[in-house]
Amino acid sequence: MGWEALGQWGEGAVRIEPLAGGVANDVWSVRINGQIAVGRFGSRTDADLAWETELLQRLDREGMYVPVPIPTTDGRMFANGLVVMKYMEGGPPETESDWRRVAETLRELHRLTQGWPQRPGWRSSSGLLHAETGTRINLAAMPPEGVLRCRAAWARLVGRQTCVVHGNPSNPGNVRVTADRVALIDWDEAHVDVPDLDLVLPGNAADLDDGAHDIAAQASAAWEAAVCWRDEYAVKRLAEVRPV
Question: 181: cis peptide before it, omega within 30°?
Fold first, then answer.
């Protein structure tokens, strides 16, 4: 059906203009009931979208600033691969203080989602120690030596408590900061994993000690190499993962 599904949010629902940042999805600003919102159209399964939209609703109820889904006229949180979400005001983090606030927000996310079920089709970093695939990851497509390095980095996280991780909070484009709040947007890579993967932030804003930062940075670089393989960014990230 494509963007025709937008009609399920009401007769006056219209697309306005495409938004930057969408890689796996087509993302546009839209107008719903006279209000600006964000529409995201992609190929995710209903189970995947149900996981994400239920998570965002829960976080919204807990007081976090997230792009909470706007229901269709008959109350569904998504329709035919399309999700419409609240538009989040603000700009990207710029100062050390901004990034420290991002770290605090991430730790609140991690606290609220301990015990959360895994996103359908995804695997955690430790799950990929013995499996080759998980949604956007296919380790069989990577050089065998690179897979060994990634798995060695992830093995250092085994046994730690898990929760929902945002997946890419160090990208300033995925954060909106105002004077009184921090909002995390673009939850397309959120899944259940070890929280340290979210805490490799500019200027070590999460204040990890040297050992913890090294473990997290290596595991994060390995994860991004695997998720993005095989573009130039993925090759660069894999080069940061130390040989076994």
Answer: no
**105 and 210 belong to one structural domain:** yes
CATH code (residue 120): 3.90.1200.10
Task: Please write the tens of the pLDDT for every residue from 7-61.
Answer: 999 999 999 999 976 567 899 999 999 999 999 999 999 999 999 999 999 999 9
Same domain, 117 and 205: yes
Cα 236 from Cα 176, distance rounded (Å): 27
Provide the domain limits for residue 132.
96-239
How distant, in Å, are the alpha carbons of 39, 49, 124, 228 from that of 234? 28, 26, 18, 5
Co-location of 51 and 121 in the same domain: no
Residue with tokens 């050089």: 143
Alpha carbons 18 and 40: distance in angstroms, whole number: 10
**pTM value surpassing 0.90:** yes
In three-state secondary structure terms, 33 is: coil
Angle, CA of 201, 187 and 181, to the nearest 5°: 60
